[in-house]
Amino acid sequence: MTLVATAVAIVLLYLLFRDFQRRRAAVREEPGKLFAAIIPMLEGATLHAGEAAGMHRLEGSYQGHAVSVRTVADTLALRKLPSLWLMVTLVREQPFAGTFDLMMRPAGPTTFSNFDFLPQTIATPPGFPEDAMLRSDDPANMLPLAVAAAHVPALFADPRMKELLVTPKGIRLVRQMAEGDRARYGVFRQADFGGAAVDPHLLRGMLDSLIALQHDIDRQHPQRGPVND
Questions:
Q1: Residues 169-225: pLDDT tens digits?
Q2: Which of 106, 111, 186, 193 is the most buried (most CB within 10 A)?
Q3: How many CB atoms lie within 10 A of CB 197?
Q4: How many angstroms separate the Cα of 109 from the Cα of each of 9, 67, 85, 103, 116?
């Protein structure tokens, strides 16, 4: 029995080691797979691999605008499957000292947003989605609601669109990209997103929407230059 138990233990250790190697290799290969289809869209595309699965960044230029494309795996939500979020940012100094943060269906902390830490909740005006909540740290000096109102309904017609953020450093859209595999997460508590990749048509639509918003901002305020994200 001792020999059998030892043999079983060795086999289990070997299988665990193989699984560890497979997962490390998957993490190394993940950024290339996530961004492969969109790298040609960005001039001077530079890939920055994260330290954890699902968390990576691609930077470059789109139609003359500095942009950042990030993926963030969120496993904090209770009683929900993990989510892979796509964060698309137009990296450009904005003429607002305050933060405008519109979040759809906020339900607890997230790994991709500081929404919960903004001190003031603002009543959403008519025409905004019913499930939206708006917060700011300086309502008197944030993106004007009238400017946002011209873009918000179309942006959030997509049920997976989660957040519109306008800060002094840029404007960002956040959209759910994928949910974790239910069986694997239920048994192994692993956030497996089934080889998800950023769709170039989706990214182009998000970038074009951000640029359209930026153009409306520029019509009312002086032109600003790019800044570091």
A1: 999 999 999 874 444 443 334 455 667 899 999 999 999 999 999 999 999 886 555
A2: 193
A3: 17
A4: 40, 26, 14, 12, 7
